[in-house]
Amino acid sequence: MTSLNPQDTFVPGRLQQMSTRVAFFIAGLGIAAWAPLVPYAKARAGLDEATLGLLLLCLGVGSILAMPLAGILATRFGCRRVATGGTLLICAALPLLATVSSIPALIATLFMFGAGLGTVDSTVNLQAVIVERASGKHMMSGFHGLFSLGGIVGAAGVSALLGLGLTPLAAMLVVVVLLIGALLKCVPHMLPYGSDSSGPAFAIPHGIVLFIGGMCFIVFLTEGAALDWSAVFLAQERGIDTAYAGMGYAAFALTMTVGRLLGDRIVRKLGATRIILFGGLLAAAGLFLATFAPSWQAALIGYALVGAGCSNIVPVLYTAVGKQTVMPESIAVPAITTLGYAGILAGPAVIGFVAHASSLSFAFGLMAVLLVAVAIGGKVLKV
């Protein structure tokens, strides 16, 4: 008697769609909760900027190493178990990040935190591909919108808690309670399986998967640049007060979140190819405006356009990688997720290197050219 693959006997429905949305919210909340803690960790450990930058690489290394492994584990043990394990790693790391003060402890904790984030991110994107395909509808933008919403709640919520006088540890315990509550809500309906286990356990991305991954890399590179350099640019080049320089990224994040929450409807109306084409051109135009317009008000509008343009490109690319047949999706989805994270990590360094060699304006202009290449790639991809 042959055993049946769970995918052959169970079709994801509305409960699995709900669990996917909550899981994306968990991923966004978890990563954003760390951002307000960075200055506290820096002061507690007595770190200078260079040392802090090297330590933060541990988070990225943990994420990038965990992502392909998560795809393999999800194939063997199911998305439910792997996403749960990743969430529990995040919950264990956050209180430690609020308290540890030695460099070795920070290295270990940041690596663990990054591994948890990478595991959850890779697994929920894999589940999203399966659930969206089963629904026969465009749902990926909405899923990613919950990640963005979780990011806003995490960053703003932790900042508010700290502003009210809570200690970093107390604030992180509140976040852990929220994460556990969200996990309990979604875990019963997470997929008990991953993707088809046929094919190799690991493979270097190639063909259409590498092409899609390269486009993801550029879009995430833009997001990393907006996160780490928009405030510097506004303060340095446009003379805006340092206290308000973060408005550039706030404008970017707001339009990206709204764009994703409305994205499924927009994708159904315009189609995936036009989303990439028009989105890439809109983001490029916004970055040109933000970089070369003389006023900071115009720059804010530019960053808002970048967020709107980029908002639905990556979700559409995840849908595309679920349709390709060159590589098993259990390998392909973690591969493009890893390339995307590499873009976020490389973004600040690449922008800094180019800016040092020329100027910050030239670096942003180069990013805009790459976004035009993404738009052209959408025509080539024909999703």
TrEMBL record:
Keywords: Membrane, Transmembrane, Transmembrane helix. PROSITE patterns: MFS. The chain crosses the membrane at residues 22-41, 53-75, 82-100, 106-131, 143-163, 169-187, 199-222, 242-263, 275-294, 300-321, 333-354, 360-381. It is a multi-pass membrane protein. It is found in: Membrane. Pfam families: MFS_1. Residues 208-383 form the Major facilitator superfamily (MFS) profile domain. InterPro entries: MFS (IPR011701), MFS_dom (IPR020846), MFS_Transporter (IPR051788). This is MFS transporter. The lineage of its organism: Bacteria, Pseudomonadati, Pseudomonadota, Gammaproteobacteria, Pseudomonadales.
